[in-house]
Amino acid sequence: MTAPFSPPPPPHHQPPDDPWAPPPAGGGGGGAVPDAYAQGGSGTDSDPGPGLASELITAAVVTVVMAVLGGVLLGLLWWWLAPQVPLVSDGSAVYLKETEGEQAAGVDGTFTLLALGVGALSALVVFLVRRSGGVPLVVALTVGGLLGAVLAWRLGVWLGPETDVAARAKEVGQGVTFSAPLKLSAKGALLAWPLAGVLVHLGLTALFGPRDPDPYEEHQPYGSPPAA
């Protein structure tokens, strides 16, 4: 007498409450993963912004335009608005006509104030043209501002009175007042433009620049209850 055959084992299946069970073929179910996470993305198409090559080209253009146009503008304004330093010659030496005058300090102060204004203006223009900002633009504001300040300094000296004081004193004669050449005694004033440009641009970018979307605000953690 033979023993009855035991029934075949049931097909292997996972418990219905197994969290690792694959989703059913028809879709749906508690174990399904949202499409945004299944694709490895955030679910939104974010703007990648300009590429590195585009940013470098923009920075180069900003540097050249600032150095040339801004430098010429600053140089002309300095030459026009800087106070004149009166000199006089006694035939053997040249002296300040007003020994207690503040014109010499006013020359440096005028350049510094004008450079601060031009730096702030250039930062505003750059921000309006390219709101996305970026490190290349900050470098362009720094380098272009410094080059423009140097160009403005040399242009103002070239447009100003004769730099050869002895020859000028001999030309006008003894006891005749003449103007000293434009001279930037405080070379630190050359940093006023790039400093103002970088600070103003960073401030504008922080206050009004575009901001990346926060992924924690757009998507809830997987498995968390919906917000009320």
Entry keywords:
mainly alpha, three-stranded antiparallel sheet
The unreliable regions are: 27-48
The total strand number stands at 3
Structural class: mainly alpha
Instruction: Work out the helicity level.
Output: 40-55%
The whole-number mean of residue pLDDT values reads 78
What string, H for helix and E for strand, traces the elements in order? HHEEHHHEHH
**N→C terminal distance:** 70 Å
Radius of gyration: 36 Å
- Measured by DSSP, the beta-strand proportion falls in under 5%
**Alpha plus pi helix count:** 7
Counting copies of identical and different chains, the oligomeric state is: single chain
Question: Strands of the largest sheet, in order across it?
Answer: 2-1-3
Overall, the morphology is elongated
Largest sheet: 3 strands, antiparallel
Could you give the topology of this structure?
Elements: H1 35-38, H2 52-81, E1 86-89, E2 94-96, H3 103-129, H4 135-159, H5 165-172, E3 178-179, H6 192-208, H7 215-218
Helix pairs in contact: 2-3, 2-4, 3-4, 3-6, 4-6
Short description:
By secondary structure, the protein is mainly alpha-helical.
Structure description:
Helix 2 packs parallel to helix 4 (135-159) and helix 3 (103-129) runs parallel beside helix 6 (192-208). The longest helix has 30 residues, at 52-81. Strands 2-1-3 form a 3-stranded antiparallel β-sheet, with helices on one face. The radius of gyration is 36 Å and the shape is elongated. Strand 1 (86-89) and strand 2 form a beta hairpin. 22% of the residues are buried. It is mostly helical. The protein has 7 helices and 3 strands, in the order H-H-E-E-H-H-H-E-H-H. The chain has helices at 35-38, 52-81, 103-129, 135-159, 165-172, 192-208, 215-218, and strands at 86-89, 94-96, 178-179.
